[in-house]
Design brief:
single chain; binds uridine-diphosphate-2(N-acetylglucosaminyl) butyric acid; 14 helices; four-stranded mixed beta sheet; alpha/beta
Length: about 425
Amino acid sequence: MTSGQETRYLVRGGNPLQGTVFVQGAKNAALKMIAASLMAAKGRTVLKNVPVIEDVRRAVELAQTVGAVCKFHEAERTLVIDASDLTSSVLPEEIAQRFRASVLFVPPLLHRLGEATIEGIGGCNLGSRMLDFHYRGFARLGAVVEEQETQIHIKADRLRGAHLYLDTPSHTGTENLIMAASLAPGTTIIDNTALEPEVLDVIAFLTKMGARISGGGTGFVTVEGVDELTAVEHTVMADRIDAAVFAMAAAITGGELSLVGASLEHFGVARWKLEQMGVEFATHGAILQVRRDKQLRPINVITDTYPGFATDLQSPMMALSCLADGTSYIRETIFDGRYNLAGELNKMGAKVEVAGNAALVHGPSVLHGTEVIAHDLRSGIALILAGLAAEGETIVAPGYHIDRGHAEIASRFATLGADIRSEVVS
Ligand code: EPU
């Protein structure tokens, strides 16, 4: 896999961030759209505002591996995909093992080639992250799913509409089953669907392609299968997690930032939690102003599906709480294994105690720079935030995890006055 050389980030803290930053396009919408574009049997799909991140590069590689012709104009953040000739139904291990969203390529392969083989499935190291809703859903739609030791093989001459139920409102599960149902003759009803804004953007994209989907945002989606989907142009929504990370960067450094393209509405509960801590927001058209000049107050956070407090912001929030004046309480309910950040923050002088799925963060701490490990994307960006507030130099590695989800993080922070650079590890 072309994941490039190993890199690490070097951060010297202490500068309050000031200035204007552009929020990237949403990773968790763009990845689904890249897969969905393979359902158009002719024409070229044009996706705009695509974030230039490693996960997108993996998705593009996967699309190319199965035969799509892709041109990622990175400077323009525009991706052009021509999926007229799909040639392979195999999602190879070298990509699929590190890129869990590979499962999103199953619906287009089933519809176009009648089968899909996933040779491994990976992604963030986030404890038990099952994909059973996806496979059970494909089976309910008429596919035969065979789990072998090292691969999963899914076969379907033709999918057919069915009534599906998700045990929990899985974000990717919802999108994947909507995709699968879009070209399945008949009516598909999916109960207990996810409400995340990215799901609505994916539905908007599929609808432009010709899909007939209703009920997005209600928890109950109906899809009427159509005969074909066509290639269209679409602009990916702004990334609410990237936006909130920059808001927290303003907060942790005691700075003031203008976030271009951020939607405060998409922050969900994170907005109220940050305000409770003493962060101030003001919206001016497409610009969200964020500042923090008072002592941060401790906070109580329980992660939940949208509009609850996003699990992807739990790690950055843990870093921010280290500076709060008192003990913060955090409970993770979506993913287990999302607390390996605690040990890394403690190396920097934080006092984080973990008990089961709860964490107590005793603040305020004076953080000091040291070498720390990014165990996954969100803990990686949280350590960058901690580094921005720490005395001395913080070295965060591997940089790949951060680059999976945040575009040009060093240069975007440096423009705001941060002392940060990335370096290739020899
Ligand atoms: N789950 C199952 N079976 C399934 C699917 C999910 O048990 O078939 C469980 C998971 O194990 C987890 C919970 O349900 O405990 C929620 O999982 P969900 O399916 O909602 O998560 P996801 O779709 O795999 C997406 C994002 C994640 C984000 C979560 C929650 C993408 C590509 N990934 O994952 O993003 O944390 O929703 O919002 O959209 C990230 O960006 O860093 C990231 C991990």
